[in-house]
Amino acid sequence: MIGQEQAALSNVTVDLRLYGILDVGVCGTDPSRLASMAAEAASGGCTLLQYREKDIADARAALARVRAIRAALAGSDVPLLVNDRVDLALAAEAEGVHLGQSDMHPADARRLLGRGAIIGLTLKSGAQADELYRMPVDYACIGGVFATSSKDNPDPPVGLDGFARIAFRARLARGSSFALGAIAGIDSSNAAAIIGAGADGVAVISALFAEDSVEGRARDLRDRVDSALAARRGAA
Predict the structure, then answer these.
(1) Is 71 within the bounds of a domain?
(2) What is the pLDDT of residue 68?
C-alpha cells in the first residue's frame, strides 16, 4: 500500500499558469516544427510544456522528437514533461512525466525518476481526487472541463461546477497550496472563467498549436490567466 509519507516525495514547485501540450495529432511529427513551436510557446509565456503522443509505434522516432523539443527549450527555464512514457522521459532527460489513471502508478514513476522530477496526474472525478493524499505527485490536471476535439475523451465534460467540486476534494487531500490545472476545451474565451473557478493554470493544445502565431497566442492566453489570478487574489 502506498503510504502518505510517499506523497511527501513530491517536493517540486510547479508553475501551471500556461501549460502547453505538444500533441502530435495537432502539431505533427516533424522534430524541427515541434522544436520551433516549443520555442515560440516558451517565448510567449508558457510556464510548462508536455510532449504527448498516444500509441507510439516508433519509440526511437518519438525519442528524437522529445530531444529536439528539449534542446529548443534550453535556457528558457520552461520544464518539459512527457505524457505517459517514463522511459522516454528518462532517455531524453526531460524534467518529468504526466500520467493518466491507467498509466504507471506515480509511486513507481517517482522511484524511477527521483525526487527532483516533476510528476503530474490527471483527475476525472472526486473519488480520484480523494486518493491524492497517497500519491507522490507535484500537480494534477482536472478534466476534461469542456468539450474538445484534440483528444478522445469518453467521459462527458465536468464543466466549471464539476471542476470546482473536484478541486475542492483535491485540496482537502493535499492542502490548499497543491497545484491544480484544468484541461480540455480551454481557450481565450473561457480561460479566465476556469481560473475564477479555482484553477492555478490552464493546459491547452489547440488554443496554442492548431494555428500559426504560437508566440502571440501564448502571450494572449498568459495575459488572460495572469489577470484572472490577480483578480481572484484581490477578491480573496
Answers:
(1) yes
(2) 98
Tell whether the model's pLDDT for residue 3 goes beyond 50.
Answer: no
Cell of 193: 472563467
Q: Is residue 6 situated within a structural domain?
A: no
Q: Characterize the bridge pairing of strands 96-99 and 80-83.
A: parallel
Characterize 57-83 residue by residue with b for buried, 16 or more Cβ atoms within 10 angstroms of its Cβ, and e for exposed.
eeeeebbebbbbbbebbeeeebbbbbb
CATH number at residue 75: 3.20.20.70
What is the C-alpha separation between 203 and 199, in angstroms, rounded?
A: 10
135-164 pLDDT, tens per residue?
999 999 999 999 876 556 667 899 999 999
Whether 163 is covered by a domain: the verdict is yes
233 Cβ neighbours under 8 A, 6+ residues apart: none
Residue pLDDT, tens place only, 213-232 = 999 999 999 999 999 999 99
Residue 84 reports pLDDT greater than 60? yes
CB atoms within 10 A of CB 209: 24
Answer yes or no: are the C-beta atoms of 26 and 52 closer than 8 Å. no
**Cα→Cα distances 90→95, 126, 173, 229, Å:** 9, 31, 29, 33
Residue with cell 512525466: 97
Containing domain of residue 224, as a range? Answer: 14-235
pTM beyond cutoff 0.85: yes
- Residue in the structure block whose three cell numbers are 495575459: 223
Residue 104: inside a domain: yes
| Number of domains comprising the chain | 1
